[in-house]
Amino acid sequence: MYSKRRYLSRLLFENFFLKVGSFVLAIILWFVVQIQGKIEQKVDLRVESASFQNLPDDGIVRMFKKANDINDLISVRMKGIPSAMSKIAKQASLNIELPSAFNDWGKEVVFELTNKNIQNVPLGVEIIAINPTTISVMLDYYIKKNVEITKEYLGVLPEGFQIKSISLDPETASLSGPRSILESRNSVQSRPVNLGSLEIKYDQTMYTLAETPLITPNFVICEPASVDIIFEIVEILVTKEFKNMDMEIKRLEGTDTIEEYNPEKVTVIVEGPQNIIRSLEPGMLRLILDVQELPADKWRDVIPKVEFPRELTNRVSVKQFIPDKVSVKIVKRNNTH
């Protein structure tokens, strides 16, 4: 018994000051390592990854934020020893606990962020700063619905042209987002397009403004995000009346005939593009009465013909003759050969 006590006494008190000094030195070294060995690191947490506590269970509730919100990231500066900081970027998360009386569904709400909102932080890691210290989001029930796409256009077409039809591809879009915004919405509109941006040609009718963006409210996702607007643009057709027009006789080649015809002058109504018809003059029209195949000594009804300048042949046409026929009789036909 005595030897055991003596052994313990020697173990405790032999080189006592050396042992105490070593212990103190070890503590000092530990503190030095803890203080000097700590590193700082910035961890970025996405706002959209935040989890909310105390959500209702009678539907799907989601967090919504503006698509162009620059505060998409929460930067958290932390300090700790390397072993604890090595996985902090994957472990840390943003957590917000809603008050039990929360009833601001469908409203933009500002939440203040403190250290307690940063979860899954290991022991030995200290949160130094959070930036920004607030986030502005909206919590609401999530819904999805199909709506009609509508179009809007500005500007005017060149003179003489008009829109015949407008079609959209696709005609509907799918909207998803807060119930408070989408519940009463039945359409989504395209961004206004300027007709002045179209290069209009008389021989082209179909024009497509591809991938025109659709205008959607904040917090709403639209699929697709754009639409093709297809315009059918045609020339404005007008008519013009030319009265008391003389007619040329087209006789059988190699013959000389004497004709009687009634009436001697006709009225012709022509139709064509507005820009052309306005400048069309009587002298530009050549009215022809073709009597080549008519037998002699009998009255026959002949429909006059009109020859237009070559460049207008496919763009201008005869709409009506008044009268619609001319009575012709070959009185005498002589062979000139």
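(ticket continues) Second input and output from the same batch:
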Amino acid sequence: MSVNYPEALWGLLGLIPLAALVVVRLVQGAGDVQRLGGTEDGGALLKVYRWKAIITGGCILLFYASSILALSDITYGEREVPVERSGLEVAIVLDVSRGMPADDVDPNRLGLGVDAVQHTIGELDEAYVSLTVFRGSGSNVVPMTADRTLLKTVLETAGPGYMTAPGTDIESGLVAALDSIGSSTRRQPVVLLVSDGEELSGDMRSAADRIARQGIPIFAVGVGTTAGSTVTLSGGSLLRDAQGEIVTTYLEPEAMRDVAERTGGRYYHYSGVGTASDIAADIRETEREIQEAGARTEPIRRYPVFVGLAVSFMALMIGVRVVKWRELF
């Protein structure tokens, strides 16, 4: 079992004040019924009221809980679905954080990353492509398209100035890229992640698991060196942290490899055109394997069950309130 939107589960905490309100209303209502019912029918009326109030209150709580569980998009179990796809959709995720201008590679990490994207996509000439860039947040700047002109223009101007959010959040980049892939696509989607793997916020492994559940592999491309480098800013000064210390940024190959392997993809340390050819060949091989299999497994989303329960509890609550019991209430 897995949860696609675990943050929604925090909403279950709302059951506590909601349950308190239900109990308070039950007690107050019982007092009102006793005062208004008189001595002749007061006992029977109070009994009916209490039962209806308990059932109604329980339905409200169960409706709320079911709605939250539906929003969290719980998946449980797997099923095989036929694959009738032709062609590729490549969702490119490019790191433009402030560490990418580091010059431990030539010309720098960002320049080498752009080179990796251009040469890899150049060998996948029939693929549709999209481009997502990220720093402290991710943004899809080129929607999924067969037109390479816009992609080329954006790549030529890509840099830290594209984003204002500070930090490096690879998770947000991966999630934004996933959103750029159409749910009803007839092509095989893949994610091409280009980064040094340094993550200052977010959890890229969580995003990778979510992408894996959609049957989409990540091909992760590392740029930079494990020896690390300082970052020279446009004015010639060195990048410093909030405490004024000079920042040294490193390639994190193991993190990138972990993200790729979680999805059935691969990790590459980019060193030039030869690496791009290897990446493109592996993407083509993945496409061929999926098509030959004729089917793939996907998790079963259980939100319809919780939506049905929520509707049932709401209908029961309305029915209990509308129908008279024993001609009393």
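Agent notes: The mean pLDDT is 87. The first strand starts at residue 2 and ends at 3. Closing as not reproducible unless the customer responds.
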